[in-house]
Design goal:
142 residues; alpha+beta; Nuclear Transport Factor 2, Chain: A; 3 helices; elongated
């Protein structure tokens, strides 16, 4: 009887210790167990737009969520899907410590134009074509 009581007390004392090594452990990389592919993100978001295209899926700046870059109607924006795949958040993530809008920074990054990809074969070039800084002006002659 004493052995049973001792064993029960031992298990009861070690239970909180064993739980501390579980999923909620601080610093654990949750992306090792939780995955979201582009195809799965497309399936989850298909109800939100006919021409919705998934550009990328990556870890969000906020733990427990993925950042999913989507394009619809020529507009590229990030949305966030939680690890349970039950919720989508569309809005700004703001770092309180840094006082920065992390979502806006991502919007600017995914919408950045690579000027090296702009064809200038038929362009009117003024000044030194090998200058360090260049300005590209678009005009509609019509």
């Amino acid at each position: 009887m004493r052995k049973l009581v001792f064993f029960s007390v031992l298990v009861f004392m070690l239970l909180p210790l064993s739980q501390s090594f579980g999923f909620s452990e601080k610093g654990q990389d949750c992306s090792k167990c939780h995955k979201l592919s582009k195809d799965e993100a497309a399936a989850l978001l298909k109800e939100f737009g006919q021409g919705l295209k998934i550009l990328d899926v990556a870890a969000s700046p906020m733990k427990g969520m993925w950042e999913v870059d989507v394009e619809a109607g020529g507009r590229k924006v990030p949305v966030y899907i939680d690890f349970s795949k039950k919720f989508m958040v569309s809005g700004a993530i703001i770092s309180l410590k840094e006082k920065k809008n992390l979502t806006q920074e991502r919007v600017e990054e995914i919408n950045k134009v690579d000027v090296a990809q702009i064809p200038l074969g038929d362009a009117l070039v003024m000044g030194d074509k090998n200058a360090k800084h260049k300005i590209i002006v678009f005009d509609d002659p019509a």
